[in-house]
Q: What sequence folds into this?
């Protein structure tokens, strides 16, 4: 069934249509929020809140934009609020923070390279202003126009933020790989 | 850019298996809560409008029937007019005549005992009356 039709049914109070929407979007929203917050449990909680809002505020949805944009707007707004709260109470450097994701949260991949874990760290240290557009573009696969619609910002702003976010990630990765290389070289020198 | 390819390679997490059940439970819980809040608001509005109606009824149909004097007398319990079953006319004028001794006010008082002083009202306006 068409998403618009499902939303129309939710507006009429149909719970089955709501369950169908949840089935379609739950994994995508949980993944998006997990990448944003870096905490699986928090991502699940925020996803639940996102879907609750979809159910109770369905009458506010206008079919001028795709439903996916609307649901991602809700999710990113919730995530932004949550991240603000987290920043308010957290004074620990992001580099010192251990990854709190449970192992089962990820698809098991024993061959996860150091590069990927560095990328995760860099992504976690990225400011939400840049992190959200980068995730939406490079992980969720939205177009820049769609991201502008989701975040309610001009297209130029979104382009600039994506670019800055990517550059930051690149620099961070280069920095960490340089550190690792110098550490390896030092060890080799010590071993003779 | 290599890091972008890596971003795409980042593993995707999935929602827990009981996600929908928990969500539906929360939805029904919030529905009930919303309903409770709605009833509470309705009862508040009802109570307020009942109080308003009572206040209006008291003011329009009960209290204005008695004039303030009558009402005050009624409260004191000695309103003869009310006891007779007749209310005083609205805005009834009660003239107050005060006996004033002006002998102390006249400085050049004559010693002749039979001198008559005619006191005239200097103020040209009509005598004020207290209206109740």
A:
């Amino acid at each position: 069934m068409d998403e618009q039709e499902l939303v129309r049914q939710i507006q009429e109070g149909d719970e089955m249509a709501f369950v169908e929407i949840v089935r379609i979007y739950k994994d995508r929203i949980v993944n998006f929020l997990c990448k944003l917050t870096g905490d699986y449990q928090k991502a699940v909680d925020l996803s639940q809140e996102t879907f609750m809002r979809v159910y109770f505020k369905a009458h506010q949805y206008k079919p001028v934009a795709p439903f996916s944009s609307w649901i991602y707007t809700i999710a990113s707004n919730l995530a932004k609020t949550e991240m603000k709260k987290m920043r308010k109470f957290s004074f620990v450097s992001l580099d010192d923070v251990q990854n709190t994701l449970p192992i089962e949260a990820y698809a098991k991949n024993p061959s996860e390279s150091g590069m990927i874990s560095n990328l995760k760290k860099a992504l976690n240290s990225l400011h939400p202003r840049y992190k959200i557009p980068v995730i939406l573009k490079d992980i969720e696969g939205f177009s820049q126009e769609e991201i502008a619609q989701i975040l309610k910002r001009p297209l130029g702003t979104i382009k600039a933020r994506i670019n800055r976010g990517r550059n930051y990630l690149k620099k961070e990765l280069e920095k960490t790989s340089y550190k690792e290389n110098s550490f390896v070289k030092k060890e080799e020198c010590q071993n003779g | 850019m290599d890091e972008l390819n890596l971003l795409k390679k980042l593993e995707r997490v999935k929602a827990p298996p009981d996600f929908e059940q928990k969500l539906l439970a929360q939805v029904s819980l919030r529905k009930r809560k919303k309903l409770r809040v709605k009833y509470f608001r309705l009862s508040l509005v009802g109570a307020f409008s009942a109080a308003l109606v009572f206040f209006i009824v008291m003011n329009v149909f009960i209290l204005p029937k008695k004039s303030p004097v009558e009402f005050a007398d009624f409260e004191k319990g000695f309103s003869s007019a009310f006891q007779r079953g007749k209310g005083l006319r609205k805005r009834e004028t009660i003239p107050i005549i005060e006996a004033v001794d002006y002998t102390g006010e006249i400085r050049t008082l004559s010693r002749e005992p039979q001198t008559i002083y005619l006191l005239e009202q200097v103020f040209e306006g009509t005598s004020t009356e207290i209206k109740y």
Q: What stands out?
A: Helices of chain B lie at 2-9, 19-62, 68-76, 80-83.
